[in-house]
Amino acid sequence: MDARRKTGGAVFGAIVGGSSLEERQRCAQEVARRNVSGYWIGGFGLGESMNERPALLNAVIETLPEEKPRLICGLGLPEEILQCVAAGVDLFESTYIYHLTLGGFALTFPLDSMEINASNLASSDVGSDLRKINLRATVFRKDTTPIVEGCVCYTCQNHTRAYINHLLNVHEMLAQILLEIHNTHHFLGFFRSIREAIKAGRFEEFRKKFVQNVFLQVNHTMEVFPEMTMGSSKNNMKTWQGTCP
Amino acid sequence: MALRFEILGRFNRARAAQLTLPHFVCQTPLFMPVGTQGTIKGLTTNQLEEIGCQIILGNTYHLELRPTSELIDEFGGLHKFMNWPRAMLTDSGGFQMVSLLHLADITEKGVTFQSPVDGKPMLLTPEESIEIQNRIGADIIMALDDVVRTTITGPRIEEAMYRTLRWIDRCIAAHKRPHEQNLFGIVQGGLDPVLRDICVRGLVDRNLPGYAIGGLAGGEDKDSFWRVVAQCTAALPEDKPRYVMGVGYPLDIVVCSALGADMYDCVYPTRTARFGTALVPEGVLKLKHRAMADDTRPIDPTCACMVCKNYTRAYIHSLVTKDAMGSQLLSYHNLYYMMQLSRNLHSSIVQGRFPEFVCNFLQKMFPKGDVPEWVCNAMEVAGIDISSCCSLVPSAQD
């Protein structure tokens, strides 16, 4: 904190505590007492399961003041983002996009879950899901369509899946450049959709539709997101205490 | 014939022209970046347009391997496949085969080689090379020639030269799209003026849309290099473009332009970028050098490119020492440098100040006046007075 006065700029307090509810709470309380500009919540995305996370998140966040931003590091999967936003997280730092790009993946999940219905869900190709496609797959060799139809990023406006497939096959760095442009654009678009859903008061519905239709089958949803099937809202989650089946 | 070549200005042998191709109207002298596998390493087609690329090169051998010329044809040609709206040139595939494949061999039929995919014996004939290039769809296609390095001596050179002439007829016969694609012949003959002369005359007889000077840029001494270029440009027709293949260094391009050449290609600017080297008026700048780590100047303060306007040497140093992606900014700058050189050559000839441009160029590169002798000799033949930038007296050279 003293060092900050010399350099200027905001300082976020770090909150850790592993998988212990008590330690998480204690750390959050102590950090909240300090005069920091916001909170950096660490230690997630290191192997805990989706069902363990809500309790730990809530233990931290319900102790933190409303008016300061909360940043979480290490979580990037869209369903994890939705889980954390529901819990009250504001900022995310993640290498998710970077790893997708390196692997030759491009994000394709629909950005507005409200528009998803049975008829417009893409049929899933072998080896890909509704979330992303792997452009190395031979099925894209002659695909003249852009990564996502209607996407306004440079890559989708100018190039085809076939061209990127070719670039990946011949190990050309333009492949990563084009993929990163699209993935960044798409991911930032996802966050825009989240903000709009929250402002319109329909975030829970938005989240439910996403998780059910895009990321998981319905029964799996209930196992992994028990809080959702109990009529979730931020207030309800405070009372959820038990472990998952 | 699918091109128009109109000379707009001259200085002695040097000429500035407008080269109208099916996909783009170009200004010569010009440099063509090499986009081997359907991409210039790390740059988007948008960036290539930004820096002023007019023609890019695709390598037939690589593209036939992946994704195959048939697939490219299905997509409507390489222009559509990679979304490049301007002009394109493909080479014949012969050079890559000979230089890349261990067991490649040249016979009268064509180039025999082992398929890199499954080891089966394969044959690239003049007919097939042209067929593949017809499918790829570039504005300019190159004849399959029997290319021999200039560092080789003996009867092989003469054999290669005559074979190149026999093959040009086969290429012409196989060419299915003469109204959309321009077939250039390639002058061979090693460093032997007699052989070069025979080859030039044989190709000119076929009345091709343009001619390339091949077999150079392979390690021969500079003195032999410029003399072959000078001989060929003097003998090739005035009203058709002349393309010196595999050239190269900015200095070489200036000399060859002074001698009357119009088009160049080389992997040098992009390859050297990947090793952390930038092209600057003084020569080269090695960004990996420790001294760059805290140098807050741009690569070239006189350069107007996006990289020089936005990034410091220090920043680029931190990238290139870590990651191949760091070289993307250098590729951009280096190609911008080559495009700017092309523009300067064209405009200085058109505006009647070519000798001043050459002197200025040499002064910046050789501030001590130590211009290499081969350059002085070439400029003398080109009729350009560079005494103001040469401080060495010719007779003092050994």
Task: Give the tags.
heterodimer, A: 245 residues, alpha/beta, Rossmann fold, 2 domains, four-stranded parallel β-sheet, two-stranded antiparallel sheet, 12 helices, 6 strands, 47% helix, disordered C terminus, B: 398 residues, TIM Barrel, eight-stranded parallel β-sheet, three-stranded antiparallel β-sheet, Queuine_tRNA-ribosyltrfase (chain A)
Describe the structure.
The complex is a heterodimer of chains A (245) and B (398). By secondary structure, chain A is of the alpha/beta class. Chain A folds into 2 domains: 124 residues, Rossmann fold; 86 residues, no CATH class. In chain A, the strands form 2 sheets. Chain A has a 4-stranded parallel beta sheet with strand order 1-2-3-4, covered by helices on one side. In chain A, strand 3, helix 4 and strand 4 form a beta-alpha-beta unit. The longest helix of chain A is centred in the last third of the chain and has 26 residues. Chain A is elongated. By secondary structure, chain B is an alpha/beta fold. Helices cover 41% and strands 17% of the residues of chain B. Chain B folds into 2 domains: 269 residues, TIM Barrel (Alpha-Beta Barrel), CATH 3.20.20.105; 111 residues, no CATH class. At the A-B interface, helix 7 and helix 8 of A face loops of B. Chain A: This is Queuine tRNA-ribosyltransferase accessory subunit 2-like. Chain A: One of its GO terms (biological process) is tRNA modification.
